[in-house]
Amino acid sequence: MEIRILDARLNDWGLPKYQTEGSAALDLFACVEQTTLIQPQAPAVLISSGLALNFGDMGLAGLVLPRSGMGHKKGLVLGNTVGLIDPDYTGEIMISTWNRNPAGSDPITIQPGERIAQLLFVPVLRPDLTVVQEFSGATARAAGGFGSTGSV
User: Could you tell me how far CA 124 lies from the centroid of its own chain?
Assistant: First the structure.
């Protein structure tokens, strides 16, 4: 996979990397020019990751996810819940940030170079769809859902 550095500060901060041997995702940096405040319950704010990727494999996609500590401790989540990076997209990866805390709470402060999101690579399956009148091999769970199996 090829990576383009769009913000030269990544050369000093380091490329996105897996923080531990068992990390599933790369951390993404906030490539902001100055301290940025994310106001509670305000519209989501796009923040540059400073990089672009060329997947080189249409069987992969990227998922931009919130960092669990930032979401749990500070209330910083993604404005689009999960960002999908299609394998044919080669533009800059942007991070949609949103402060989920109640209105009137303090803003969340984001510093230049702070790790604010993570990028997970996943396989992509693209089955061919066939229109049918009835399913072959339907299961007992054909209808219901949303708690239909009970709560205990």
Answer: 16
Look at residues 34, 28, 31 and name the one whose alpha carbon lies nearest to residue 7.
31
Q: What is the pLDDT of residues 84-124, one digit of tens each?
A: 999 999 999 999 999 999 999 999 999 999 999 999 999 99
Residue 144 lies in a domain: no
What is the residue range of 112's domain?
2-16+27-123
d(CA 90, CA 10): 18
> Which CATH number is 67's domain given?
2.70.40.10
Residue 148 lies in a domain: no
Find, among 24, 27, 52, 56, the residue nearest to 115 by Cα. Answer: 27
CA angle 88, 93, 97 (to 5 degrees): 135
